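General statements about sequence and structure are easier to judge against a single worked case. For one protein, we set the task of working out the structure tokens from the amino acid sequence alone. The sequence in question and its structure tokens are set out directly beneath this paragraph.
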Amino acid sequence: MMGIQSVDRAVEIMEALTQGPSTVGAIAERLEVHKSTASRILSSLADHGLVEKSSSSGAYSLGFALVRFASAVTRRMDLSDTAQKLCDEVSAALKLTANVAILDEVFAVNVSQAVGGGLLAPRHYVGLRTPGHATSSGKVLLAHDEAAAEAALSDVLEPHTERTITDPEALRAELEAVRAQGWAASNEEWEQHITAVAVPLRLHDGRVEATLTVTGPTHSLPPESFAEVAQRMLALAAVTHRWT
């Protein structure tokens, strides 16, 4: 309980400092605590750059570490907004369900989705943690993250359908093929009668930030169409300002 109380007090201090610099005494009075308690919390916040103490007045103000946190939130919001717009455009163009996913350990987590007309009962994928070895999005993300790939290869590859890759060497070869061809597919490997194609979404420095996927029933997205669909997806993704 004391730990939670300390966090509450730290947050209250930072909220107070949004109004401007303040002394230890003023903060102690606001929190209704002893000055030594307020001083300890401020010192801890200062150690992490969340607040700064003026050498002349002794007053505390918000620290520049908060700029880093705000920047990260802004980037996440920008990712979500751009991803949703891309999903909407891809789904409309290809008449398939489109998703954008990011890597979480050895899983692909969908952050945006637009439902196409091809699925009679489309699954809601947003927020869903999908198996990296059995999904097209997961294969793309694992193929471009060596540590995650090795973690997946060293673990048990759970079967989800009779087509799921469960042999580590077969998965290693699959990931090498993904890197070589620039896209990945899941041919009924996670869900029966459902296929998917994914392409990497690269930042301008070449790093893969996320993956774009289209999903549909096998008759709407047959294996012979995978390569062509992947090229169309890459072309659609290239019009965004965030990804290449």
Remarks:
- Residues 65-94 form the longest helix (30 residues).
- The helical segments are 2-17, 24-31, 35-47, 65-94, 136-143, 146-153, 168-181, 226-237.
